[in-house]
Amino acid sequence: MRFFAMLSLAALVLLSGCGYHTLGPSAHLPAGVQTLAVPVFATHTDAYHTETAMTQAVIREFVQRTRLRVTASDSAEADATLHGTILKEAILPYTYNASTQQSSSFLITVVASVKLTARDGRVLYQNDNYVFRQQYQSTTDLATFLKEDPAATDRLSREFARQLVADVLEGF
């Protein structure tokens, strides 16, 4: 009986210290930041959908990793606002298939700028040069052609969001 009690106590101690938790709004952001506005990113490119995919990924990542109330609009009631701008987006051939004489994979490169400001105008975080790349394979058979760049853009957006949120939360 005593052995069982000691074993239970040891298990309880080990499990209680696992370290898993979500970050609260005051963990790394200034006190008082409870709500965060993330309006749709601006874009200086002709690419379609990237600004939406990146904004949605950033919102999703903040919701998952913090207890902040996150809104997708530019709300005046928000304690902080994260503005993003896609400065450049390029899709370039990455590898070449000599037998078909076509590119067999492509590389998407996105350069973005972000700024997190408090309601009073203080800059809480800023990075003017986020560079992210994502490779994808091209379909060479026209009968089964599937446009792969939207999926690559979504993957790139998730990676961007993970890095951005980590930088914001750990930057203080």
What does it look like?
This protein is an alpha/beta fold and 172 residues long. The chain has three helices and six strands; from the N terminus they run αββαββββα. The chain has helices at 2-16, 50-65, 149-170, and strands at residues 35-37, 42-43, 69-71, 80-97, 102-118, 123-137. α2 (50-65) crosses α3 (149-170). The radius of gyration is 22 Å and the shape is globular. The model is unreliable at 17-27 (pLDDT under 50).
In short:
By secondary structure, this protein is α/β, with parallel strands linked by helices.
Chain-wise SSE layout:
Layout: H1 2-16, E1 35-37, E2 42-43, H2 50-65, E3 69-71, E4 80-97, E5 102-118, E6 123-137, H3 149-170
Parallel strand pairs: 1-3, 1-4, 2-4
Antiparallel strand pairs: 4-5, 5-6
Helix pairs in contact: 2-3
Secondary-structure element order, as H and E? Answer: HEEHEEEEH
Q: Tell me how many strands there are.
A: 6
* Poorly predicted residue ranges: 17-27
Average pLDDT rating: 81
Range of strand content: 25-35%
Q: What percentage of residues falls in helices of 4 or more residues?
A: 25-40%
Number of DSSP helical runs: 3
Q: What general outline do the C-alpha atoms trace?
A: globular
Distance between the termini: 49 Å
Structural class: alpha/beta
Tell me the radius of gyration: 22 Å
List the defining traits of the structure above.
172 residues, alpha/beta, six-stranded mixed beta sheet, 6 strands, 31% helix, globular
